[in-house]
Amino acid sequence: MGLKAALVTDSSTLTSFGKLIGLDVLQLSEICQESDSFPSDATSSKLLKLLGFEGGKCLDVSLYDSVFVHIGVDQYNNGNNNMGIIDSLIGSIMRMAQPGSEIVSRLHLSLVLSYGSVTDKDVSVFPIKTPQEDINPAFAGLVPRQSYTMRGEKTRDDVRHYCPMLVAQWQHAVTRKDLVDTLSFETLKKLSGNLVIPADRFIHEVAFKLWKAPKYGA
Is 93 helix (H, G, I), strand (E, B) or coil? Predict the structure, then answer.
């Protein structure tokens, strides 16, 4: 899709995968600045500079259109404080992209949280498909297929109707604002602006936000 993209991770598995699909791979440990409030604002500044932002300004050129940052579950403090690390990093970036800044109109931010290994048994724990008994039989034939069940004009046979990952997106004046205030499955299911997107279409959707690809779905 013409994206210049980098993957920032300390995971050896992801490093190999990133190189395999053509991403430039950078070490998270080399970018992060250790501090009492890790990750520090210096870390956010380094990540934003990769995208062509520095000191609240837009540079004439950028190394990358998209930067994927991976923080593993067991990466720091035995995984006990990883949500605090992610919260600190996102908060720092949001402070630098305040309304009125040059950055805010040019930055797209997606946060993906994974539950880890998920099996078919989890369909009862994280269901996303509306039970047929909840649909009035008189209108069952009028319910359209959701975008995540389709590829082009054909029905996908490889989709699962349970959700092992949560996605939150922010782009000033572009993304829909919903009532979600907690990243939990039940909250997103009840209050989110959208419901489901296949994992293999996620990067395509990010590329659309960056004007690099056509819109996916409705």
Answer: helix
